[in-house]
# Entry
Amino acid sequence: MALEHPVIITGSISGSLANRDQCPAIPYTPAEYAAEARRIVDEGGVHIHIHARAPDGAPSYEVEDFAAIQAAIVAEVGDGAIINFSTGAMGVPVEKRVAYLRACKPDVAALNMGSMNYAKYSERRKSFVFNAVFANPFDEIIAFLEVMREERIKPEHECFDTGHVASLWPLIDMGLLDAPLHVDFVMGVLGGVAPTARNLAAMVDNLPPGDHHWGVIGIGRPQWMLVAAALTLGGSIRVGLEDNLYLPDGTMARSNGELIARARRLTEDVGRRPATVEEARRILALPARATA
# Structure
């Protein structure tokens, strides 16, 4: 990737951890997802990453919830956005997560590339707010990849550390991955790589040989610094209410659209431009959409 390449701006629309007590803008119902998707697309986002929720806001891994959210978004924005489903979870069987991929066939599905400690620490309390092991063994990664190949779903490889980036090579050698890869570097989760521009550059340098697409996912307040670093290094970017609730000045975002608008502004301020959805589909080497 190079600086003259257009930037794919992704909106992480909801996540599964935060709730409306923390941010009133987080969507719960399919109609609310659709309204947020419209705001994302109107501000220049072309790729929407989805964690499903039940209408009461609880995280969901049910086919019917993913299908309802997908249908509502498509009804609202049509072909205006690439649909990306999360497959990440703790304690949810692979078979359950595979079921909604097979049923809904999103354009893209996120795939976590390795196991890790996953924690949040409070300096004030001198203790962990939460502390878990996020297990993503190779057997599960391969099971997801086999389904994605069958269903023609593009994997988005989420790498939380340089070791996760190195895990791409054996999967290429096994014939499970086709170039160009779509890789996102997730930075800011305690247990993964520290969120610095130098670490981002190191992760880019560790990509397998080839002309692959990469972007950054900054978690929490370091997000905007990482967005700027990725834009400078030639990558794409993701923002949204899953990753960070705040604008650069510390004001809580009132919608995903506000976060996408600021990301678009930063893109243009460094002399780059947002990708159109047609360009994004070409960059990610997605199959052509079926025509009626």
